[in-house]
């Protein structure tokens, strides 16, 4: 639960909201992959509990990418029918297979 609270607080912070707005404005509000309307600012280097307070990761414009919902879902392999396994043979993201 701690991770969710820390992430929730970060995404509500004035610093994040400013960085997000700056990214959106810098790319004219368009998805950087397909050119559609961008709505989700994605961290290229994944944001974790260990790096959330490192502004070179969490707020760095070079680590942010504006994506439309479809491109963001593809990036995170959400709703993919592709079955993937980790190095131990465990099914990855079984809830996202459908």
Describe this structure in words.
A two-stranded antiparallel ribbon has the order 1-2. The protein has one domain (about 1-85). The chain is built from four helices and four strands. With about 100 residues, the protein is α+β, with helices and mostly antiparallel strands. A hairpin with a 5-residue loop joins strand 3 (about 85) and strand 4 (about 90).
How many separate domains make up the residues?
1
Q: Roughly how much helix do the residues carry, as a percent range?
A: 25-40%
Radius of gyration: 15 Å
Major sheet strand order: 1-2
**Residues in β-strands, percent:** 5-15%
Basic shape: globular
Mean pLDDT: 88
User: What is the terminal separation in angstroms?
Assistant: 26 Å
Oligomeric state of this protein: single chain
Structural class: alpha+beta
Unreliable sequence segments: none
Largest sheet: 2 strands, antiparallel
Number-wise, the strands total 4
Compute the number of helices: 4
Order of helices and strands: HHEHEHEE
List keywords for this structure.
98 residues, two-stranded antiparallel ribbon, 4 strands, alpha+beta, 35% helix
Furnish the topology, listing elements before pairings:
Blueprint: H1 2-11, H2 14-26, E1 40-43, H3 55-58, E2 64-67, H4 69-75, E3 84-85, E4 91-92
Antiparallel strand pairs: 1-2, 3-4
Short summary of the structure?
The protein has 98 residues and is α+β, with helices and mostly antiparallel strands. The chain contains four helices and four strands, in the order ααβαβαββ.
